[in-house]
């Protein structure tokens, strides 16, 4: 909550307030709430350059805000938020493989999938999902980790980090505007799968992209861990997305990914919050997503 980019910035503390309020509903009473630890330097340096980490942590302002790129600001408290966000995904990975919690939703901010190895971008400071995936590979000696990203915007940072790493499959549906990456031709070493959607794409186009392209590819990949960059700005009410999905689409894709995880990954799923900037839509989508994760 202390990460505060500014009064009119869409990535505000109110997002997390809305998510936590939604998860206070009695239907989620059996969820275990776990405070996220801070990510360690070892965890961060698997995907981010040391000089970038040092620069980011050394330049948090005592008051006011500092611009890192045209969309990304830090305030007093931003470092702590970013460290706990990345640490949450690593802790969720540890829990999945310890057997005590095979599924986790990381209710965190700032988001992460635009963060590059040596630069903040698009509201993102550390690439939370990438830090978690690299942690899984390092600690569990995995050969096949799948990251599925249904945020309205392409996760250029995640793609860049794992571009040459065949152990990670990155699959994304997104509107092909911001940040200008994510074309079908961007395939890495055969491990990148991008399905750009047309402006105002609705449920049919979204679901066809998964049924026809991404889910068959996941079947072939047979991931040992399924990770989700859970961005809900593809909802038709979102002010920053350009897609027109319904709340039910996020429930549908979650169930489909759970099916993949059940058959190939012993049910292990780690989901991490990315975008979603209409608070009502964000609440609805988180409820749909977490309800599905609960099975």
How is this fold's topology laid out?
Blueprint: H1 13-22, H2 41-45, H3 50-58, E1 65-69, E2 72-75, H4 78-98, E3 103-106, H5 128-140, E4 145-149, H6 156-161, E5 168-175, E6 192-197, H7 203-221, E7 225-230, H8 247-264, E8 269-273, H9 279-293
Parallel strand pairs: 3-8, 4-5, 4-7, 5-6, 7-8
Antiparallel strand pairs: 1-2
Helix pairs in contact: 1-9, 4-5, 7-8, 8-9
What does this structure look like?
The longest helix is centred in the first third of the chain and has 21 residues, at 78-98. Strands 3-8-7-4-5-6 form a 6-stranded parallel β-sheet, with helices on both faces. Helices cover 39% and strands 15% of the residues. It is globular. It has 295 residues and is α/β, with parallel strands linked by helices. Strand 4, helix 6 (156-161) and strand 5 (168-175) form a beta-alpha-beta unit. It has one domain (13-293): Histone deacetylase domain (Arginase, Chain A, 3-Layer(aba) Sandwich). The mean pLDDT is 97. It has 9 helices and 8 strands.
